[in-house]
Amino acid sequence: MRIDRSRLHDVVLAGAVAAASMAVFALYGPAQLRAEGLRVDGVRPPDAFGALLVVLACAPVAVRRRWPLAALCAGLVPETLLTALGYGMGAVGLAGLVLLYSVASHRGLAVALGALLLAAVAYALTAAAGGWRAGLNEHLVVAVLLAAVWGAGRSLRLRRAYLEELKDRAARLERAHAADTRAARAEERSRIARELHDVVAHHVSVMTVQAAAARRVLAADPELAREALTAIEHTGRLAMTEMRSIVGVLRTDASAGTPAELGPQPGVRDLPALVEQMREAGLPARLVTEGEPRPLPAGVDLAAYRLVQEGLTNSLRHAGAGAKAVVTLRYGPRELDVAVADDGAGGSAQPSSPPGHGLVGIRERVALYGGILNIGPLAGGGFEVRASFPLKDGQ
């Protein structure tokens, strides 16, 4: 069974306050007052009833945190009776101060102000019952003591609320950081998925076409089949190289703690090699460049390459035998236009058919850099993938 340490501490504090009050109540009776030359008119000697009132005045300290206001009210009643009956308060005023402090530190401002007013009224009643024998200075000391104890309790409450606010703010920041981390991870997974799809779909499509060609000519022309198999091997190596470059961003050198070395990402400078690869795979393709070529932002450069790669891959898959493809790269003053068009039968596909993962990835890439994407069949037959990327001045 778990013990509530705060309640145990309050019980111990109540016992200590009661013991101190009983000692003062018993030692500083009328005989001690006469020995010190003080007046004792109207002061009753200590007895069992007076001792019971002292204990009752100190007992509420044991529940000062759970019911602070009720404990203060319960403690003020025997404390007032002690003075009204002529016993003298002894040290029970200490219990009243502890209870006032507890109300101020554990309750709201309105309740705390009510407790302070209640303690002041109780002191005024006890002073009036004693005939206001104490001097003005003593009353001022009591008033300052009550205000100081109340202020200390309020200060503790405000500090506790401030610390709770700091903890809550730290928890909110931690939750926000975790949410940002999850979003960043999801975005990174999506980016890597797009890259892997573009690489795998393109190279596997090329390898599939080359493998089919090799199978058809294997018996009739072994030399041509050998060339096709060599092209398949070369395409597979290219695919593995690009995949290592993409996945390498996830790896680090465990011994040195440094990122793994990554090769440069492909860009428009690699389009001639890509077009040549498609020609070797059986898709007659050519590259047309309009305008003055100039350096492009890294993201736009990669997005343009992937768009051409995906467009040529779709043409290779769906355009049919004898189809031709044209890649157009147009450099404008403030934009870059990239288009992949073929004259095959791919444009006759059902428009209601769902787009593949590659085209979805292209849409995401183009939207990421503020571009405009158009995908669809051409009026005279064939299919086109066209995108326009905005460029800043000087790019």
From TrEMBL:
Asked if the record carries the keyword Transferase, the reply is yes
What are the record keywords, sorted?
A: ATP-binding, Coiled coil, Kinase, Membrane, Nucleotide-binding, Phosphoprotein, Transferase, Transmembrane, Transmembrane helix, Two-component regulatory system
Q: Which GO terms describe its cellular component?
A: membrane
Q: Which reaction does it catalyse?
A: ATP + protein L-histidine = ADP + protein N-phospho-L-histidine
Extract the InterPro entries matched here.
DUF7134, HATPase_C_sf, HATPase_dom, Sensor_HK_TwoCompSys, Sig_transdc_His_kin_sub3_dim/P
User: Which residues belong to any copy of the DUF7134 domain?
Assistant: 7-160
Q: Which Pfam families match?
A: DUF7134 (PF23539), HATPase_c (PF02518), HisKA_3 (PF07730)
Please verify whether the record's keywords include Coiled coil. yes
Matching SUPFAM superfamilies: ATPase domain of HSP90 chaperone/DNA topoisomerase II/histidine kinase (SSF55874)
What broad class of enzyme is this? transferase
Q: Which residues form a coiled coil?
A: 156-183
**Domain Signal transduction histidine kinase subgroup 3 dimerisation and phosphoacceptor, chain residue ranges per copy:** 188-253
An example Gene Ontology molecular-function term = protein dimerization activity
Report what the protein is called: histidine kinase
Q: Which organism is it from?
A: Nonomuraea aridisoli
Its taxonomic path starts at: Bacteria, Bacillati, Actinomycetota, Actinomycetes, Streptosporangiales
